[in-house]
Amino acid sequence: MNQLQQRNTLLSLLKQGLWGEDLRIPDEQTLTLDDWKNIYTLAQKQTVQGIVYDGINRLSKSSRPPMQFLIPATVGIDQLERISRLHNQTLLMLHEIFSAAPAIPFILIKGQSVAALYPNPSHRVCGDIDLWFGSAEQAEAANRRIEQYGIPVDRGANSDSSYFFNQVFIEHHTRLIDLHNPVIRKKIDNWESRTFRTETTLSHHALNLNNCSIPILPPVATHLLMSTHVLKHMLNEGIGLRQLCDLAIFTKSMYASLDKQEYIQISKSWGIYRWNKLLYALLVKYLGLSTEYLPFETTVNPDILLNEIWETGNFGHQDTRYNERPEGKWSNKWHTVKMITAKMKLFGGYAPSPAFWWISELTTVRLKELLLPDESTDSENNR
User: Fold this and answer.
1) What is the rounded distance in angstroms from the CA atom of residue 154 to the CA atom of residue 335?
2) Could you read off the pLDDT of 345-357 as tens digits, one per residue?
3) Same domain, 268 and 249
């Protein structure tokens, strides 16, 4: 089985795992043990092995892979389930900590709030836990409270912070949307402020864990977050199929609750409308999302986006086109320039304003770094 056949088979299994549909896998009768191993390795690179595993379980017995494949795969899925339970337990512990008087309101973004929408929530590969506190002041208050438990907190750029809690990586965010256009930044800040205040005070939307309600984003905000999150990483190092599966499952699940006119208006105002059309086109063509669930029509060809996803893998970890990031300031910066140039050629036309301001900010950061002494920390290397 060649690479194209492996990728097509993976996509067919993803559709089965996402939607529970019995779809025929191309050439499924001819798959060897090595074929199955290669397909599953590809799924792991894209961090969608749990969904693929669910798709495999929907195959007829005669079409399923041999036990030499299924046994180690099942062991891996058991580990995913354990990690998912650990994340849920950790969320409950954090909720208790931040609910203690004086309470520090937060909103859970992405992660387990999206996983809950999957047919098998524990089969979505967990990343970290992202908590949004609405402001730098609130995030710092949360940081100090965590430090009271003897846990060191790493304060990074843009007032964001991170730490390990209960063996899980946690991030505190002060902003929700990573768009750096100064012309609309104030507008975004005002929108974020309204969104945070509404969700934390009225608890319109929540993830229920063991009868505990954890505030989550409303549908419009989640769509905007997912869209700009994928754009940010695609312009930077790349992204995997897991994030697109998240968007697909969320789009279908929240279709009836989405204020489509508001979403369209904000997408156009922020300069991401064409980008969103590219995203949704991929969900339809390659992940099997029905067009009836789209917030707006799209006729864009998404092949350019899928090809980049195959090349980069999850957050660019599989991208071999630019070799390893070299040591030395000038070599390192030239490496970044080559990556940026390639990304701009691919996606600048779909999100010209976000792409322009992203490259402008990154260029400013790089110039500042070049002026610093060699011993300074290069904290922005992976941006």
Assistant:
1) 27
2) 777 788 888 878 7
3) yes
